[in-house]
Specification:
homodimer; 346 residues; alpha/beta; three-stranded antiparallel sheet; 13 helices; globular
Amino acid sequence: MKMYEIQDVTFELKKYEFSEPFRITGWIHNEAENVDVKVVLKSGKIGMGEASPSYRVNGEKVSALMALQKDVKEMLIGSDVRNYRRIFEIMDGFSRTAPSVKAAVQYAILDSLSMATEMPVYQMLGGSKSEIKIDKTVGIDELNKMVEKAKRFYHEEGYETLKIKVGENLKEDVRKILAISDATKGASYVVDANQGYSVKEAIQFANATYENGVNIVVFEQPVIWNNLDGLKILRYNSPIPIAADESAKTKYDVYELIRNGCVDFINIKLMKSGISDALSIVELAKTTDTGLMIGCMSESSLGISQSVHFAAGIGAFAYHDLDSHMLLKERGFRGKFKQEGELIKL
Amino acid sequence: MKMYEIQDVTFELKKYEFSEPFRITGWIHNEAENVDVKVVLKSGKIGMGEASPSYRVNGEKVSALMALQKDVKEMLIGSDVRNYRRIFEIMDGFSRTAPSVKAAVQYAILDSLSMATEMPVYQMLGGSKSEIKIDKTVGIDELNKMVEKAKRFYHEEGYETLKIKVGENLKEDVRKILAISDATKGASYVVDANQGYSVKEAIQFANATYENGVNIVVFEQPVIWNNLDGLKILRYNSPIPIAADESAKTKYDVYELIRNGCVDFINIKLMKSGISDALSIVELAKTTDTGLMIGCMSESSLGISQSVHFAAGIGAFAYHDLDSHMLLKERGFRGKFKQEGELIKL
């Protein structure tokens, strides 16, 4: 059955502008440079994936990723995509050097198999859910602007969960969160400090918001990624759940976080872990009663589609922070899903 | 798409005689009572699975398993098998009370999906390998008989890995293993004590065989299943790899074994863990560099086929102890694989 053989793998560089500057701790995003990955089978069927590299988190640069095209093609050409675990394993070598390419290729393999078998990827992965709800993100800005945006997302657009970026100034951050909470009563908040706080600051933030009744459901990566002891101290001194994001790239990272009792939640992103490590992390988290959310880098609708299918297929995520496609200017929608506000249907 | 809906689930009790009594520590097998599980889809496609319950390991009795037929049917009827993770989760409730039924139903679901999509189960699971090598087992017997059997399996039938049952008498066991090793130079041995030794005896066995140059690649479950501290002490005092079998039923068991550093190897059996926990255990073991083997209870060719497809699809097992179908008298071969001695091809 040559039909399932990989005939070609191509990379295409794509640039996207953000609709408005997107600010997080220590970083402002104005544009995204992503890589479309196309896998072509002998049958002519095509699978698509997207790499959205993050220099901040993964140390990736798109120049180096694009330069890998020939290597990846040589590594995969002639492989049978039905034997996808073999291909996953080949790509695992890029876990630290090019995790977003690993993710895009691994997903494109599943997508090509899905095209060939006419079974959507989310069902190939188990079909746990046929719809999920996503959050929408409020970047760092002046207090009034953050409150206005939160009100719009919650009251007008119907997003029940808001993601709020903090981490640059503890006192201001607490003021902002309290103001947002006042203006959007009933909402849930995923608060993300992107490594901006010290352990002591993070404890202060958690207590101050909790005592004021702010409904924070997850407090993401309050401290620097490599401070595992700090995360653990914070976890046991915080009334609200602590999540690892930048600390949790590979399955090995997550095993260490969990066995050392460092966190309540893991934020899985395909761009950090690929499909293969993401599958491992899910099993590890479910076994140890660790909470799971899924996030994104700066994916377009193509890359968000990957995470949507993964999340629905696996069905293990309490929160879906999959909104980057709404922050980018993109010519045409390329997701294999339908979106009605916060609701995403497959 | 009603085609993929489950229309019926039926159980059928099957009895098999062993070709000759099969003796392990504290137990003699003369017959096996297994349950064929059939899942019928609206399309008419049929998926088959087999439960081979073990009272010794799991506390299961076939009477209670057969009595579950109506419940299982009610729990699953109308489900879409493409959403197999939902069904896996429903069956997870039986993890302790009826793990062999959980395994058979979970596999039958995959088999029915495989029939509907015309993709073999091992490829649905990732297609890591298209062939595997199995071992063949020498039960407890008089020294001469064990040696004769080992010689036949190794020299005449070509099995490179022999599984040797020990555990009832340390001194005799060492004599037997040395005699077998002398008579089958070049072979590898998986030695299984089925919980028969004390920790001190197990350390003596490991050292005595190692010092005499016996090529034992895995030493299975030397001590009682609930002695985790004992396993750990043994592990750090044994020159040969220690495996958990009876200690490793669910993914939760395996997480505790691994995080506490108790073992070098895990023996996964679908009859202990089902497909769902087996998948978790594989990810956990691979993340922590723990060795993996796969074993069986008293499955016929139908049940062995399950483990063959699982093992080849996942591709993570160093040893495949999947020979129970060769110990049973079975009317017709029902495996979806071809066997040439130790070689199993898909």
